[in-house]
Amino acid sequence: MLSMVEYVHQRILSYNGEIVVDFTMGNGNDTLFLANHFSHVYAFDIQEEALIKSQDKLKNHDNVTYILDNHKNMEYYLDQFDIGIFNLGYLPKSSSHITTHLSSSQKAITKAIELMNKVLFIVVYPGHTEGKKESEWINQYVAHLDNHAFNVSRFQMLNKNHSPYVIEIEKR
Question: Which of 1, 45, 124, 134 is within CB 3.0–4.6 Å of 50 for a Cys-Cys bond?
Fold first, then answer.
């Protein structure tokens, strides 16, 4: 079975798009995937360490705009995009104390849904305190999106407690 990130990557390839956004750059794995398949990538992170690692990983790509800022400030950098991905939580192999937070994730996800042209993927990690808060809010919020404007689905391992899952929000 595919991991959550592999599943998202597979789903992303079923969409066409020019401008894509990695709202949580982290170690640059999603950014690299997007840069290999789309015309231009905007990649956000609040940690300089993430930006440096990602730039090193993507040194042969000239189609990425790296943004050292909170994803909730996306409207200062772009006014629309085709495909976006959030991989919530903390930077893998780094401090679990530096994590996404509900307050900024709420603003970012709400704004991203307004700005997207096609689809948004949110990988949610409910296995830590802040992730549980994010998970509860996201589930409630997306369940109430207008079904005439959006299709919303969830991919999850049902036999693993507190495992990551994917929310896919497609604009109709």
Answer: 45
108/102 Cα distance (integer angstroms): 10
In angstroms, rounded to a whole number, what is the distance separating the alpha carbons of residues 89 and 124? 7
The residues, any chain, with a CB within 8 Å of residue 8's CB and separated by 6 or more, are 30, 85, 121, 123, 166
Task: Select from 74, 125, 123, 138 the least CA-distant residue to 96.
Answer: 125
DSSP-derived letter for residue 75 is G
Q: What is the DSSP string of 91-134?
A: -TTS-TTSB--HHHHHHHHHHHHHHEEEEEEEEE-TTSHHHHHH
* Per-residue model confidence as pLDDT tens digits over 108-128: 999 999 999 999 999 998 888
Q: What is the pairing mode between strands 19-22 and 81-87?
A: parallel
pLDDT tens, position by position, 94-105: 555 666 777 899
Euclidean distance between CA atoms 162 and 158, whole angstroms = 10
Q: Are 125 and 164 in contact (CB under 8 A)?
A: yes
Instruction: Give the pairing type, strands 40-45 and 116-124.
Output: unpaired
Length of the chain: 172
